[in-house]
Specification:
about 85% helix, 1 helix, Rx N-terminal domain-containing protein, mainly alpha, about 60 residues
Length: about 60
Amino acid sequence: MKSQPDFHTREEVVQLVKGIYRALETTEDRLDGRYDDIYFPMDLTISALTSKVEAIQGKLVEIQS
């Protein structure tokens, strides 16, 4: 028995490609969310520490003068 070659209409190919792009966008969105979950809190912590260091440096200048 001969197997028939795979043949897809133009519309089927378009639908397959759209599905691939939807999957890529979903994956990208999930990865962006994970990136923000990891690095955004760290950025806030670093900013808070920087502010505290600047406040301490200001107090040291007051004490020295």
